[in-house]
Amino acid sequence: MSVITAYARARAVAAGVAQPIATVRHVHLAERPLVFVPLTLAGEANAPLAAMIGTDAEKPTLLTVPQPRNRDLRFAFAARLADIVVPYVDSFSHEVEPLRDTVCAVDAPQLIVPNPMGIEFTRLLGRSTRFRRTDGPYAVAPGVPLLGRWLTYFAERAEHPGSCALLALTDALSLHWATGQSALEDTNLAALMAWIDPPAESSGAQAAREAENPKVWPPAGPATDPEFDNQVLAPLIRAYDTSAPDSPARQRALDELEQALASQLEPTWHLMWRGIAHLRSLPPGVSVAGRWAADRRAFTDFHRYVSEGGAPQPRRDGAVAAAYRLNLLERARTTYEAERAFDDPLVMATHRLTGEAFQGTVVSVDRERRVPNEKGNLVTRPLVTVHTKDPVRLPAGAKVAAATRRSQTGLIVSVETVPDGTLVTLELSGGMGRAKVPPPGSVPALDEQLCYSGVLPENIPSPALPPVEETPWTHGGPPQPYEPSDEDAAEVWE
Amino acid sequence: MQNDTDARLRRIRGSARPTRHNARTIAALTGNPGCSRRTIVDTAGVDKEKLARHIGFPSRFGQSEFAITRTNAFQTLLRADDYAELTRLLREVFPEAPEQIQYLDLEATDNTDAQDQRYARDQALISQAIAGNTGATLFDHPLLSLNVAGQNVYLEPELLVFQYGGSAYVVQVRSFAVIDGQANGENVGQAALQAAGYVLALRQTLGNPDAAPPEVLLICPKDFSNVPTITRLDIRWQLIAVEYQLDRLTHIDTLLDALPPHLNLDLGLDASGNPTRPATELIDALRHLPARYFPECLSNCDLAFFCRHEATGHTAALGRSVREELGGIETIAEVLGFAEGTVAPPEEWDEAAALLRGAAWLYAESVAAAAYSGESAALGPSRDSREPERGVS
Q: Does B325 sit within 8 Å of A389, measured CB to CB?
């Protein structure tokens, strides 16, 4: 939350419609994302009740579990889900392009769920299926443990700032539009969409209130509406339970259950595609493709690992793996924040307001300046002075880069207040070739408009980590490598 | 004085039976101590759920029967066979405890009027057990009391108290799962906060701050099963927070003094328990009780939808952080007026207003810049084209 987005929320209240807080799209949208709307049974840790899933808005597949407390039925659900997810994922592994000494898939799978709770559901479903075995007394269908590995992969990627392998649609939309309600209320997909795209003749506020009525707009899951549970679902599950297998009564119960669950899922299903289309209408930011490339690499690596029979991800990361991962996430966060601002003047506005970035006009350039470096060699370090009206709060010595010249770093030499603004003088390095005098165009020219930002990707150095097998006792000692066990395969899922 | 207050609170509640505080209401109250409306309504024991429904803003805390069934099954499993599971779990935490733990189920029979006697009995039983410091005793559903806004209130006894080694431990049974040793942080946080309310009540009930240690024994289902697991949770931080917020609650007498003398929230229940009083009268009465609405209220107060409606046009309705970013300015109209320079800010808002003018100018400039580069079609729906004219000041 920043002053700019808070102000945009206030504007949204007055305008009766969500206000843009981004001018480009900061998330990658795959050509054919796999949209996944799961429902869970209330009160259980992770009991799938139903799901609507597919890559085509017109052709969703409905999966249901007539008695979610029945273990066999749950695994039947997982098997059917695997039959959709695993082939979808595999379909991206065939087409590859060279990448250094290896190859990388040209495209990658993308899963889109309605909200952050959908990501949590995905993570837990991955956890409860990835350790299963396809042989022995507790054998499950071959796809189930594979499904578990992939769902876990998606859920882990979702923690990477900037990754788009698994998106929660409410998060993706809230990144681009500010509504006239609170962030808490924005987690309701129907209410959020009501603000972003209100029906004709209705204000966002009105439409959002109506969208909160579970009878009109069933919740986007995974939790269901308690009234639906009590009045519709419970009697139908009882009818299923009390009917004899293969009897007409059983078939009737099954049909009615499917209908009832479809009625809860369909409104969200259509909303998902509407939301995605809305996001698609924004042009992608410059760095989006680069971040998606990281997702493609991660997918390629994991796909290779799985096809070589890799073990399921451990229950918890070992100490070394966890430290490594945290460092990676932190680095990804700073890169993501810097890139987002460079891509989008509206995001940059937040930094300009706080004085961490400034926009202005070049008023003087010394392109031929050469100074000795630490070794005493002369190096080219041009000086430029920018006049800005923004409130600059960067000190001398701070590092900045311009959105239009990202490979060139500027070191602030001086900041001087003048009657109509501020003069900032920068020493430039990089991005100008090796010639003694930088070629024209490689250095900002007089009168050029530029936006310099101090919010840059940080290379947070990772502390020297010991090899996994030398994890010190203070951190639990070397983690036990994962050995598939009967216990895992037999784990209760009730 | 206490009698006057009691009488006044009874008048506010009217003819209905009082609803009792519980750990959840205490946690909610301490989460928003500035809300006089909730303090008064809760202390008076008004049935908020019924009130909210009657005035046309029903709360949505419906519970699914699946969740209730599962919770009940878990509770029953713990108490089955003379509390065999509970014994096993408690001895996991206290291996030295005797194999035989004494159990006392203090759950009331239907008679709620006798709660003073019930409280006295429970207080005596637990105090004796602690003073005697013998063996181990588990009290199921003891009635505790806590001073809230200067008023002693009884807490709905949804807890177990375990006496061992002269200390009384709060034991809470919750139905969220602990998976691979980790549980949902929000759930654990809520449980810890509620346990803190119980620990404080236990200390007050026993008249001895050392009797109840600053921890809770939390019992939850393990992984995806129904098998219980116990965790000993340090709640010192939550105790400090709840105690501090309880202190901050305005004394109920001060709140009551500020109200019109005849104000009451009597629903006028008929023989079958249906409200008969006109809703408009109740809404008028509620308007005299100053509320402090924040979106978090939606998840823990029955009156939240009414308060949200009332807060339309206020920055608080957009969330605490939005309000803070907007410099604490009360209304949306002021925010936009200051930002667009159409309303001159009073002196105390000078700084906030200057920041807003800067934000408005940058916002307009950035949107225009994107539109200029030919991407205007992509800006999504924007029916509002007012553009502020000021620069950054």
A: no
Chain A environment of B224 (Cβ under 8 Å): 45-46, 128, 491-494
A385: containing domain: 358-453
CA distances in angstroms from B237 to A310, B146, B171, B242, B244, listed in the order given = 43, 19, 18, 9, 11
- pLDDT tens column, A111-150: 999 999 999 999 999 999 998 888 887 888 899 999 999 9
Residues 199-258 of A with CB under 8 A from B: 205, 214, 224-227, 229-230, 233-234
- Contact residues on chain B for A10, CB-CB shorter than 8 A: 315, 318, 322, 326, 332, 335-336, 339
Total tally of structural domains belonging to chain A: 2
Question: Which region among A360-374, A464-478, B207-221, B364-378 has the lowest average model confidence (pLDDT)?
Answer: B364-378
Structure tokens at A253: 């119960």
- CA A311 – CA A309 distance, rounded (Å): 6
A395 and A290 fall within a common domain? no
Asked whether residue A281 is domain-assigned, the answer is yes
Q: How many CB pairs lie under 8 A apart between chains A and B?
A: 195
pLDDT tens column, A61-103:
999 999 998 889 999 999 999 999 999 999 999 998 988 888 8
Say which CATH number the domain at A445 has: 2.40.30
Q: Which residues between 173 and 192 in chain A have a beta carbon less than 8 angstroms from any beta carbon of chain B?
A: 176-177, 180-185
Interface residue A127 vs chain B (CB under 8 A): yes
Q: Is residue A345 part of a domain?
A: no
CB < 8 Å from B in window 254-283 of A:
278, 281-283
Q: How many residues does chain A have?
A: 494
Is residue A167 located within the same domain as residue A294?
yes
Q: Residue B372: pLDDT band by 50, 70, 90 thresholds?
A: low
**Domain end: A313, A329, A345, which one?**
A313
Q: What is the pLDDT of residues B8-57, one digit of tens each?
A: 888 898 888 888 788 888 888 888 888 999 988 988 889 999 999 999 99
> Is the residue at A343 inside a domain?
no
Considering CB atoms only, which of A6, A42, A494 is closest to B224? A494
Phi-psi region of B76 (alpha: psi -120 to 50; beta: other; left: phi over 0): alpha
Q: What is the pTM of this model?
A: 0.91
Residues of chain B with pLDDT > 90: what percent?
42
Strand (E) or helix (H) holding B336: helix B332-340
All residues of chain A having their beta carbon less than 8 Å from the beta carbon of residue B312 are 205
Identify all chain B residues contacting A42, using CB atoms and an 8 Å cutoff: 64, 66-67
Sign (positive or negative) of CA dihedral A383, A387, A390, A391: positive
Residues A372 and A225 in one domain: no
The CA distance from B254 to B4, in Å, is 13
The CB density around residue B91, as the number of other CB atoms within 10 Å, is 17
State whether B177 and A316 contact (CB < 8 Å): no
- Give the distance from residue A295's alpha carbon to the nearest chain B alpha carbon, in angstroms: 25
Cα radius of gyration rounded to whole Å, chain A? 27
B365 touches A at CB < 8 Å: yes
For the cut 80, the answer to whether the pLDDT of residue B311 exceeds it is yes
For residues A376 and A278, state if they share a domain. no
Set of chain B residues whose Cβ sits within 8 Å of the Cβ of A316: 180-182
A306 shares its domain with A366 = no
Q: Contact at 8 Å (CB) between B316 and B355? A: no
ipTM of the complex: 0.89
Q: Does B330 touch chain A (CB under 8 A)?
A: no
